[in-house]
# Entry
Amino acid sequence: MEASDSPARRSLRHAGVKIGAVILAAGASSRLGQPKQLLQHEGRTLVRQTAAASLAAGCDPVAVVVGAEREKVAAALLDLAVLLVPNEDWERGIGTSIRAGVARLRESDAVLLLVCDQPFVGADVLRRLLAAQEETQKPMAASAYAGTIGVPALFTRVCFARLLSLGNKEGAKPLLTSRPAEVAQVDFPQGAIDIDTPGDFQALQDDHSVSP
# Structure
């Protein structure tokens, strides 16, 4: 079973802290030529892998923002306990999807923001982000890779207004990089691996084929 009632989830419930996840899965992936959400990696679509990791890390609810290919994305998530959040404006930019997801989870104490093109995101790194924020009490926690910080990233409620005011084409990274003192960092070198082009996906398949 991919998303059980894990100890992490039980502890979050016991503490009365509500941590949601927003998975951005609305884009058409024009550079790739096919929806990256539906690419298969290790027997699962990337969107399913990301959703399962969020659930296993204890996030509740998990909101998947859908736009292009929404029916196929929904089918890929059919038996997972996720919320589908339609974004009719997805073509206008990533900011519209962030706003839609955060608005849907505005009652949460914090949200994890994730994308669908990082094939090595698992429950472990998400749990480490939660732990880093809890330990430091900083308003944000982000993954550190390739000399920068980015998603997956955790934003507490005090950041929601800023997320909801993002422009249509704005991502959340400027919120992280503009206030580094307010961000707890978690090393995640594999976060640098994402799928934007056919070459990226071929390299992922080639690496996997030679792995022991």
